[in-house]
Amino acid sequence: MSGYTARLPPGEKPLLMLGVSGVIALEDPVVPVRTVRLTAWGRWAREVAVPEVAPDRLAALAELFQVVWVSEWGHVAHEAFREVLRLPRTPWPFLPAQFDKLPVIRVYAGGRPWAWVDEPVTDLAGATPSPAPGVVVRVDPGAGISEVDPSGLVREVLGPPGVSGRGSGAAGRRS
Description:
Elements: E1 15-18, E2 33-39, E3 45-51, H1 54-64, E4 66-70, H2 76-85, E5 94-95, H3 101-109, E6 114-118, E7 134-138, H4 150-158, E8 173-174
Parallel strand pairs: 1-4, 1-6, 4-5, 6-7
Antiparallel strand pairs: 2-3, 7-8
């Protein structure tokens, strides 16, 4: 989308930077899935496998975080997945980043706490640099969002109550 500027959503919740491929749309699933035919504005159609737990898991995450799409699906993600994931009518913001997402996420979030849930990142050339004040969660692309524990993740992002810094819970696989 030419001329699009991602705006930080208002509010106090931490940000959930959410990938689509390997997180919501699975290629070789190892968890129960629902195969659905997606479209966005009737311009194209594609079948994808979505984890059966995805709508409930995403609803729980959206209660704790402000969700931002960070995916090659861009502005199409919300519209395409709205019905199957039971998403709100108003689209969540998206970051126009397909590669080198971490620097874009850091700039976008500023000092606000965040978590980035994506399949294993291949564009970081080795070890993931310390992303403070964020948490990077790499999920198995066969299980995707099924591996994410919403309350564990928010505890890890915000740290224990009354203590600044990061927690060390097991909300998914860390890089």
